[in-house]
Amino acid sequence: MPTHASQTHVVILGAGVIGLTAAHVLTEGDGSSLFKVTIVARDMPEDLNSQAFASPWAGAHWSPMQADDRLVRWEKYTFDKFWSMIPTGLVRRLPSRIYFGVEDAEKVSAWWRGIVRDFRVFPSDHPFPAEARSGVQFETFSVNPGVYLPWLKSELESRGVTFVRRRLNSLDEACELAGERGAVINATGLGARSLFGVEDTKVYPVRGQTVLVYSPNVTEAVNIFPAGTTKPSEATYVIPRASTPGMVLIGGTYQSNNWDTSLSIPTARGILARAKVLVPALAEPTTRIHAHNVGLRPAREGGPRVEVQSVDVPSEDSLTPELSDASADTKAGLVVHAYGFGSAGYQQSWGAAEEVVRLLKENLPQ
Q: Which residues form the FAD dependent oxidoreductase domain (predicted)?
């Protein structure tokens, strides 16, 4: 077994679902002996009420997004991984219906029908909701972030991963912490806009507002895309939670470039009204409102950034916060970026993490 001194130190910036999953993949098998992993973040998995990162507020189930070949690969890998976790109780097998405002459900679902289980197209005489003209049903999964994120942290701590609550201002600081032969995984989400050395202006927030209710007779996920798009500003979806019987997440909104994390009562009323039409069981007397949630999804123009970057440490930019060893000679720092997943963080997490770890291992100095 390698000694502690011979381990490669990997610093992961961000303790959301992407950073945690990357750490999990990195420390699988003999990884915990090959890598010393430190997760540095302002917000930790137990901070489930924090609005400063998106992971606690996510719908955390599989639903189709716009995709390219890379994303489809991540989606399939992640779906299969979560499906294999159903016996653990962390993941719930969930029947699902999706309705579209276009007639050709076959066409709009072509790329993902092979990912989900038991896929079927509704016949033309199906009783569609008023705004829908076609639809599909299939088996998917859901995860409860309030249970899943702390579980990931516990698993990582059992493998020797260290968690440090700290806000780093620059890639230089992260690379200094990783050490001369170390590496950094940048999973900062929206923080990639302001992290010195990244400053990615393609990153933007998508405001999501949801209502968490107790409604024991709701047993399937239901989505409707009235205009045939997967990103309407008002998205109506109903998602039964895993691990907490009877709890159902109702949404929602998809408001690009909206940084407002305050609760909108009119929006909440609209969410509930639309959801009750879509799923009448929500109107039953047993339904009780449990919480209102507002979070910011970390989206990015052009899609997620998962790639390697070699950076000079310290940076030559005079505005870079000074390092503790300001006299150090310039050296190359290895950074693997992993941010900008928007609404798809959970459903792409395991596939993206596999790619992140592969890129890191392929580019480590020999």
A: 9-358
214 is in an annotated binding site: no
Q: What is the DSSP letter of 5?
A: G
Output the CA–CA distances (angstroms, integers) from residue 216 to 94, 244, 274, 285, 286, in the order listed. Answer: 14, 10, 19, 11, 7
Spell out the residues 6+ positions from residue 16 whose beta carbon is closer than 8 angstroms to its own. 41, 43, 53, 54, 55, 187, 189, 345
> Which pLDDT does position 323 carry in this prediction?
62
Burial 166-187 (b: 16+ CB within 10 A, else e): eebebbbbbbbbbeeebbbbbb
d(CA 168, CA 36): 19
* Cα-based distances in Å from 13 to 1, 27, 165, 174, 183: 27, 16, 10, 8, 11
Does the annotation flag 253 for ligand binding? no
**What is the pLDDT of the chain when averaged over all its residues?**
90
What structural domains and CATH numbers belong to the chain?
Answer: 1-60+144-202+301-366 (3.40.50.720), 92-142+204-300 (3.30.9.10)
Q: What percent of the chain has pLDDT over 70?
A: 92
Long-range contacts of 104-108 (CB under 8 A, 24+ apart): 104/134, 105/134, 105/135, 105/136, 108/228
b or e along 318-338 (b: 16 or more beta carbons within 10 Å of the residue's beta carbon)? eebeebeeeeeeeeebbbbbb
Task: Compute the C-alpha angle 81/82/87, nearest 5°.
Answer: 110
**DSSP SS3 for 250:** strand
As given in the structure block, the two tokens for residue 100 are: 């579209």
Whether pLDDT at 59 is above 70: yes
pLDDT reading at 227 higher than 70: no
Query: Which backbone phi and psi does 165 adopt, to 5 degrees?
Result: -85, 105
| pLDDT tens, position by position, 295-348 | 999 999 999 999 999 988 776 665 566 665 555 566 778 999 999 999 999 999
